[in-house]
Inverse folding.
């Protein structure tokens, strides 16, 4: 059961309206790395989780992501205040007519920044699209139903969301926006740590799934890019052997056997059959 608490998790501040930045912020509202996608990812995982601690954690984080969606929506509404989408329905002063006749140059130029159909279909309210106008889709949810695989995907999802918030912070000079975005970005970091802890609690947690794989190829580095150097001198080989305890062995040119493939017996051609 959900109950709506009108108090936001964090005070949302926007010092000035900025429809152009609002368009960029849509990525965290209806985009693939946004808050709705995160909430749906963790809800679907949590509802199917039989482990009680992991279930509680997933549903707690999913619920928090909905609160972040509310915060982003509040930011979008404040950023759009006074812009063309918010004013399109105002009759007094014949705003629409003035804008269509080019008399409202500021707002006419800002209208370019809105996603496709925003002014007609969204008005002052945020729409579930990304910054390019692509609608939100459940295809963003990559849950596969195996805890260690899903937790690794969750860690990556939070990392991507953190990077998007970081980029948004760099694209606004609004102190209020920066403060709110910094809070949201920091919570992505906190969620990464929670998922890391949940993954560490599963022993063993690698490789994902139940089948261990073939031991004779599980620690082999296939050196398929020579660049004129021996496999032992490859920087890629140095990376995986120098920064892991897996004990990789190098197999040159992507082959373990080195044998030529056996070809099937050729079938007789039409010409040979006709000659016989």
């Amino acid at each position: 059961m959900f109950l709506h608490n009108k108090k936001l998790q964090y005070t949302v501040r926007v010092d000035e309206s900025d429809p152009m930045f609002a368009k960029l912020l849509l990525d965290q509202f209806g985009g693939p790395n946004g808050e709705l996608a995160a909430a749906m990812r963790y809800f679907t995982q949590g509802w199917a989780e039989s482990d009680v601690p992991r279930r509680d954690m997933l549903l707690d984080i999913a619920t928090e992501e909905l609160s972040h969606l509310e915060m982003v929506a509040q930011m979008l509404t404040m950023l759009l205040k006074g812009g063309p989408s918010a004013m399109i329905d105002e009759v007094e002063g014949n705003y629409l007519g003035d804008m269509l006749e080019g008399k409202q140059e500021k707002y006419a130029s800002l209208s370019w920044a809105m996603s496709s159909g925003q002014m007609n279909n969204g008005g002052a309210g945020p729409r579930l699209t990304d910054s390019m106008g692509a609608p939100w889709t459940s295809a963003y949810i990559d849950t596969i139903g195996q805890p260690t695989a899903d937790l690794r995907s969750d860690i990556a999802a939070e990392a991507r969301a953190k990077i998007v918030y970081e980029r948004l912070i760099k694209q606004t000079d609004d102190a209020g926006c920066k403060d709110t975005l910094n809070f949201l970005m920091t919570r992505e970091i906190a969620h990464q740590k929670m998922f890391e802890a949940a993954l560490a609690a599963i022993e063993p947690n690698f490789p994902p799934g139940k089948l261990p794989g073939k031991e004779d190829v599980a620690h082999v580095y296939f050196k398929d890019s020579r660049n004129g150097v021996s496999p032992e001198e490859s920087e890629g080989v140095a990376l995986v052997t120098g920064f892991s305890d897996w004990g990789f062995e190098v197999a040159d040119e992507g082959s373990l056997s080195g044998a030529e493939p056996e070809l099937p017996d050729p079938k007789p051609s039409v010409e040979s059959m006709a000659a016989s």
Q: What stands out?
A: Residues 83-96, 105-109 have pLDDT under 50 and may be disordered.
